[in-house]
Amino acid sequence: MFKNEMKIEFPSKSQNEAFARVVVAAFASQLDPTIEELSDVKTAVSEAVTNAIIHGYENSSGKIEIECKIEGRTLTVIVTDYGKGIEDVELAKQPLYTSRPELERSGMGFTVMETFMDSLEVESEPLKGTRVKMTKEFKSF
Amino acid sequence: MFKNEMKIEFPSKSQNEAFARVVVAAFASQLDPTIEELSDVKTAVSEAVTNAIIHGYENSSGKIEIECKIEGRTLTVIVTDYGKGIEDVELAKQPLYTSRPELERSGMGFTVMETFMDSLEVESEPLKGTRVKMTKEFKSF
Amino acid sequence: MGEIKRFIRDDGIIKVSRNVKETAKKVKHAKEKLSKQYGREVTVEEIANELCITSEDVVMSLDSLNAPEYLYETIHQ
Ligand SMILES: Nc1ncnc2c1ncn2[C@@H]1O[C@H](COP(=O)(O)OP(=O)(O)O)[C@@H](O)[C@H]1O
Ligand SMILES: Nc1ncnc2c1ncn2[C@@H]1O[C@H](COP(=O)(O)OP(=O)(O)O)[C@@H](O)[C@H]1O
Ligand SMILES: [Mg+2]
Ligand SMILES: [Mg+2]
């Protein structure tokens, strides 16, 4: 079975969201994805990293980690921050729920991740941080 | 002063050489480089990572790390492996020197890194591993 | 959920390897055109602006034309 993995860390600066997206896309492209599949992964990573920056660290400085794994045709992406954490994960995952309506966020980040990936798991502890694990299986043509 | 940094690790698989090149290029693109500058950095990273894979780990499996830093308009790239190491670094850096002529390598890897980057430092210890540090200053237009 | 996807993206089942190579050709042409125009080397951002794509797309397309075992060539296990 085809296997590969990587782990990257970077500070929670807003310009690193675009960087994170390319890194995961470049890694996923080993699976010979379609534009559509790759765009799904980039969108999901973008939401997870943006959440770490604006909610996890509330725009202060902190470390974000992304682990990626390929096993067969399945990509796993784990985005971790050591920021403020989430009190109630089930509530946070509700479509349209946002704790910061003043930011004009849509409250759809987790919904987007769930839609564009095959699975989503969120683990979080207040003041410890948040770990978002997503998987996606790539079709072959 | 503009600052950013990142650190990535991946196993010493040959397909990760191309991946590493894209990651460093994507990071460096924050400096709004020219295509030529970017291509210089990619070539140097390619040589350092290839060395880690074929010499450091001799195609067995091991971990490769790349740290990148941007300070002002200077990019620093450090490629580390925990493989076999180099007995005599000065000798290894000589143009055309190669310990594995059977591989049809050119012996020009370190020379290429020195040429395409502004500085090169190699630290190595037999059986501990090798650390290659390169810097490059990007012009602005 | 289908609507969210359709709302956010507009591209279909095109292989990335092919698409990246097409971008790479456009990048190459833009680079030649702009460097003639400016009389100097051009930056990634200038090319991105010219082609109305992101700098990341420029970066990802860059070595797809020459490197034989490049990432975007089909890698089958
Ligand atoms: N990494 C995180 N750290 C802390 N809180 C988070 C994190 N990610 C999400 N949240 C919480 O979950 C809520 C919902 O997230 P999301 O669906 O992306 O919507 P939005 O980001 O638009 O608020 C956020 O408003 C925030 O309260
Ligand atoms: N990461 C490394 N680990 C162990 N040995 C290395 C490493 N990098 C370089 N070397 C040694 O230095 C020599 C010269 O490297 P280089 O200039 O890239 O030429 P080449 O790779 O073509 O042999 C190699 O042949 C090898 O003996
Ligand atoms: Mg969000
Ligand atoms: Mg070499």
Automatic annotation (TrEMBL), chains A, B:
Catalytic activity, EC: 2.7.11.1
GO terms for MF: ATP binding; protein serine kinase activity; protein serine/threonine kinase activity; sigma factor antagonist activity
Assigned keywords, A-Z: ATP-binding, Kinase, Nucleotide-binding, Serine/threonine-protein kinase, Sporulation, Transferase
Pfam families assigned to the protein according to its UniProt record, in alphabetical order: HATPase_c_2
InterPro entries named among the record's database cross-references: Anti-sigma-factor_SerPK, Anti-sigma_F, HATPase_C_sf, HATPase_dom
Histidine kinase/HSP90-like ATPase domain segment(s): 36-140
Reactions listed under catalytic activity: L-threonyl-[protein] + ATP = O-phospho-L-threonyl-[protein] + ADP + H(+); L-seryl-[protein] + ATP = O-phospho-L-seryl-[protein] + ADP + H(+)
GO biological process, one term: asexual sporulation
Stretches that traverse the bilayer: none
NCBIfam families xrefs: spIIAB
Classification via HAMAP family: Anti_sigma_F
Protein's job: Binds to sigma F and blocks its ability to form an RNA polymerase holoenzyme (E-sigma F). Phosphorylates SpoIIAA on a serine residue. This phosphorylation may enable SpoIIAA to act as an anti-anti-sigma factor that counteracts SpoIIAB and thus releases sigma F from inhibition.
Name of this chain's protein: Anti-sigma F factor
